[in-house]
Specification:
Blueprint (H helix, E strand, L loop, with lengths): L1 E6 L4 E9 L4 E10 L6 H19 L3 E5 L7 H20 L3 E5 L1 H8 L7 H11 L9 H44 L1
Parallel strand pairs: 1-4, 4-5
Antiparallel strand pairs: 1-2, 2-3
Helix pairs in contact: 1-2, 3-5, 4-5
């Protein structure tokens, strides 16, 4: 499986692509989309969308894992971050990718083992897990790779849960059909 992880940000949106499964995965590529802080916000959103579409076309992921908004003191910042997340989700959806969203605490818990881990701890664990010589820079890219790693670890659980749900539905339909024939 090839996963694109995204850490949305209005000034810097980190992205990272990894492939493999929950037991063994490796880095494909990572980077950051930087926008001009004083620029028109709608233009910044367009640049993020265009760059993400390029990343998706270039690295052909099957899944897009996006970090959820965690907490923002400033409501304007939270709203802008929400817009950026919407652009990220839209780019993934347009490309037909399977979309998953993960809370920041879950990402940190999965990658570092501690839900309130610091940025440098996430960077170092990503470096170790992906066997990199140096921690990914900027930290937004490391966060995006952490989101992708989190998805790798939780994908098996999601698959098992959806299979179990499908089996329950099938059993329920079979019982209903049997009852109709028995009447």
């Amino acid at each position: 499986m090839r996963v694109l992880g995204i850490d949305p940000g209005s000034q810097t949106t980190g992205w990272g692509v990894i492939e493999g499964d929950a037991r063994r995965y490796q880095l494909v590529e990572y980077g950051a989309i930087r926008t001009v802080a004083g620029g028109k916000f709608s233009t910044r959103l367009l640049n993020i969308a265009n760059d993400l579409e390029w990343v998706i076309a270039r690295y052909t992921p099957e899944v897009c894992a996006v970090e959820e908004i965690f907490f923002a003191v400033n409501i304007k910042t939270a709203l802008k971050l929400g817009h950026v997340r919407g652009v990220c989700l839209l780019a993934g959806e347009r490309a037909g990718l399977e979309i998953h969203e993960y809370a920041t605490r879950l990402v940190k818990q999965t990658v570092v083992g501690y839900g309130a881990a610091e940025k440098h701890q996430v960077q170092e664990m990503v470096r170790l897990l992906l066997k990199l010589a140096r921690p990914p820079q900027p930290h937004d890219s490391a966060d995006a790779l952490a989101v992708a790693i989190c998805h790798m670890h939780h994908a098996d659980s999601l698959l098992r849960a959806s299979k179990a749900e499908a089996q329950v539905k099938l059993a329920s339909l079979s019982q209903a059909a049997f009852r109709r024939r028995s009447r």
